[in-house]
């Protein structure tokens, strides 16, 4: 949920924080005081003890009163605090390395991922253990001081970070990893200058070196034994729901034309639109309350992607599929290959918008048929999106292939289509 909040703020190109990488005023003050103290110590070595101590105190006082007083205002300082809390800019931790660190593959997260320096993964060796990775002998950090650049086995680089720098030195064996989870139509960065820089791709596309989807399912080795959903002996998920469909959206005119699709569906069914593109709202600071409302009131949630690109399916689907509301998906991802059977409804499975609406009405009025869409949970579980880090760790241990990418050509070849191509010219035609 926290990830969804942060990512949503980045969906619009003009909403990226401009000073995210700057230290807070308090950190600047501490640094300056340390400098002053260091100067005092230097004076001590020149047998100017009293002068040094006095100078240290004076300098610290000047920085606190003058610099802080005439520098950032109280409002500015509050902004720093909010920014730090909102985007979780972690302070550089003190790391205790395993005694056998030489046996580990060392991974450096060079820049941030939507404000998170730890990529929502964590740091150290423990993430690979908690994820149950088959190859777990890896150590990940965002602290650039832990390892020399020549010691690194992999450097992960997120193209959408405001930090576009690279290390000053690079060892031949270090794999540079191109990390991105956005579709080409959402990018405004020229990738041409980065050709022949990266050795691995780590994206939502299935042809990436490291497949990194927003979510993954795993078939259970032993089905969960529970009463059949919707039979009267178990839970009837449809019971008590009084509303048809909900859609939460902030990007009103995306490439996918999902807004047009919703407008056409509203001719046949009631769709409640929340967010900046609709009349309804739900507290942005309480996503759990919004989710509870969705699950208790609505039968369907529209998980409509903003881009119709090969393999592109985001948190709009994975964040809702495990809840008690049925997702209706719209995108070019191979949902049948990525999801358990009978766990969603795909817009593209219907010849016309009216046929789709008719089926939703049928399910809304038939609790038994509706509840069938939740039985997959007895046979599958939704995994953490971070499982992709297991694949990276494994590849670092097993792959010996030397290669680099024309990253511009590789990324731009991703097939994105328009709405007419995705749905067909007759999809919005009148249907008797």
From TrEMBL:
InterPro entries reported in the protein's UniProt record: Glyco_tran_10_C (IPR055270), Glyco_tran_10_N (IPR031481), Glyco_trans_10 (IPR001503), GT10-like_C_sf (IPR038577)
Give the family per the record.
Belongs to the glycosyltransferase 10 family.
**Organism annotation:** Hirondellea gigas
Give membrane topology per the record: Single-pass type II membrane protein
**Transmembrane parts of this sequence:** 49-70
In terms of Gene3D superfamilies, this protein maps to:
Glycosyl transferase family 10, C-terminal domain (3.40.50.11660)
Protein name in the entry: Fucosyltransferase
Report the locations given in the UniProt record. Answer: Golgi apparatus, Golgi stack membrane
Entry GO MF terms: fucosyltransferase activity
């Amino acid at each position: 949920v926290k990830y969804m909040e942060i990512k949503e703020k980045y969906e619009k190109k003009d909403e990226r924080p401009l000073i995210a990488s700057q230290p807070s005023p308090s950190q600047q003050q501490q640094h300056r005081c340390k400098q002053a103290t260091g100067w005092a110590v230097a004076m001590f070595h020149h047998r100017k003890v009293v002068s040094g101590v006095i100078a240290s105190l004076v300098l610290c006082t000047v920085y606190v009163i003058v610099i802080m007083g005439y520098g950032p205002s109280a409002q500015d300082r509050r902004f720093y605090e909010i920014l730090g809390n909102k985007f979780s800019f972690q302070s550089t931790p003190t790391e205790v390395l395993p005694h056998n660190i030489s046996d580990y593959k060392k991974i450096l997260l060079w820049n941030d991922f939507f404000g998170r320096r730890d990529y929502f993964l964590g740091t150290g060796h423990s993430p690979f253990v908690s994820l149950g990775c088959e190859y777990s002998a890896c150590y990940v950090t965002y602290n650039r001081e832990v390892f020399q650049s020549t010691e690194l086995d992999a450097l992960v680089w997120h193209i959408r970070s405001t930090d576009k720098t690279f290390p000053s030195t690079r060892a031949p064996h270090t794999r540079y990893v191109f990390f991105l989870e956005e579709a080409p139509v959402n990018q405004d960065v020229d990738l041409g200058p980065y050709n022949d820089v990266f050795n691995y791709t780590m994206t939502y596309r299935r042809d990436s070196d490291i497949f990194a989807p927003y979510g993954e399912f795993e078939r259970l080795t032993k089905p969960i034994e529970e009463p059949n959903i919707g039979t009267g002996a178990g839970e009837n998920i449809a019971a008590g729901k009084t509303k048809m469909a909900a859609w939460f959206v902030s990007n009103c005119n995306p490439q996918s034309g999902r807004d047009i699709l919703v407008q056409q569906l509203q001719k046949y069914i009631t769709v409640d639109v929340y967010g900046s593109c609709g009349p309804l709202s739900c507290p942005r600071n309480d996503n759990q309350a919004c989710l509870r409302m969705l699950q208790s009131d609505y039968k369907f949630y529209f998980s409509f992607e903003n881009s119709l690109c090969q393999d592109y399916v985001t948190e709009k689907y994975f964040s809702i599929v495990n809840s008690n509301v049925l997702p209706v998906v719209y995108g070019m991802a191979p949902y049948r290959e990525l999801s358990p059977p009978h766990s969603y409804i795909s817009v593209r499975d219907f010849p016309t918008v009216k046929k789709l609406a008719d089926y939703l009405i049928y399910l809304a009025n038939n609790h038994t048929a509706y509840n069938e869409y939740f039985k997959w949970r007895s046979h599958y579980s939704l995994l953490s999106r971070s499982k992709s880090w297991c694949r990276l760790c494994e590849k670092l241990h097993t792959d010996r292939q030397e290669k680099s990418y024309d990253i511009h050509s590789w990324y731009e070849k991703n097939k994105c289509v328009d709405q007419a191509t995705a749905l067909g010219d007759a999809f919005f035609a009148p249907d008797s």
